[in-house]
Write a structure and sequence with these properties.
Two copies of one chain form a homodimer. Chain A has eight helices and four strands; from the N terminus they run E-H-E-H-E-E-H-H-H-H-H-H. Chain A is an alpha+beta fold and 206 residues long. The longest helix of chain A has 31 residues.
Chain lengths: 206, 206
């Protein structure tokens, strides 16, 4: 069985949980409390020397970091990973774009507003930058999703899961989602996918 | 023929140029001067609304952003992309890790030290952070490369190209490469790969 080291409320962890749940891949979860410094504990660093979550242990003991690498590895061969080379290219593009231009802004804005609000005043300047760049990312999604139901190939895929992880909590980072009607409609569409589960449902399962 | 929109001295652009050169894929380059604001010109934004480089136009007119998505798309089916699922998993892991934990620190440190040194004093605090995190990334590479000649499957692959792009210029960002003998030996090994070209050789070719 797979073991996923995970932390409550992390969009990067949620992506992997949602994919495994939707693929009906059995896995157990081990909760690591990032806020308590558990990713830096000697015990966890023996498991994952990079000290990050999510972290996946495969049934044969091999280990894997990087949430989007997990998505590509786990989805391969399933209906959630296209076979067409140009659709695959788009999956790669969205997943790298998520890590370079979306998650680095939406995730910390949400963290310092919704999870660690005591740091909000000190982070005000950075939050303004994250809002500006996160909104630029949401505008790119809005433009695409105003013409397509899904991110790649007009059907639900691992690219949608990759982008859903933090887009579904952007409102908690005070991104005004009413400005993004096509993104909002897509969020609802993802919720209708087979075996969909909310972040907090999966966080406490397994 | 492929067209690559590129900018002089960018490691993200160089990766794609090096791969295409080594795969003997014919391409032409269009130089975009980021420092002169050309990625934000109306003309360029009509080509790439995201305003970034590198940007690839495929022979059939389709376009592709994200350097590492280009690497995965172009390398597929060649000797530089493994076929084994677990080796592919490692390629994905290194390429996502490069964008999340390596390039975001090594690239800006090098930029503000070697390319825009007039901003160095103002950026001193950030440069210290980039050095700390960039060195952490180089230590992870050092640990792996002290036991392996290459990043994946003990042979040269697209993962090496992905990491080479900014590791080869880390010294210009005042990362002390003498602290990383295995990484330094790997840099030399990459230079021995078939049809290798230096960054500046490819920047002026086309």
């Amino acid at each position: 069985m797979y073991t996923l080291y995970t932390t409550l409320g992390s969009g990067n962890c949620y992506k992997v949980q949602l994919l495994m749940h939707q693929l009906q891949v059995p896995f157990r979860m081990v909760q690591i409390d990032v806020l308590k410094g558990e990713t830096r504990s000697p015990e966890y660093l023996r498991i994952n020397p990079n000290g990050k979550v999510p972290f996946l242990v495969l049934p044969d003991g091999r280990t894997l970091g990087e949430s989007n690498a997990m998505l590509l590895h786990l989805a391969e061969g399933s209906d959630l990973m296209p076979q067409d080379p140009f659709e695959r290219m788009r999956v790669f593009e969205w997943l790298f774009w998520e890590q370079s231009s979306h998650e680095p802004y939406i995730s910390p804005a949400r963290f310092w507003i919704a999870i660690m609000p005591e740091g909000r005043v000190e982070k005000a300047e950075q939050i303004a930058t994250w809002h500006e760049r996160g909104n630029a990312a949401l505008q790119i999604m809005e433009k695409h999703l105003s013409r397509h139901d899904y991110l790649v190939g007009d059907r639900y895929s691992v690219a949608d899961i990759g982008l859903y992880g933090y887009t579904c909590v952007a409102q908690d980072g005070e991104f005004d989602m009413s400005a993004y009607p096509a993104v909002s409609a897509w969020l609802e569409r993802v919720k209708q996918s087979a075996d969909y589960r909310e972040m907090m449902d999966l966080a406490t399962a397994a």
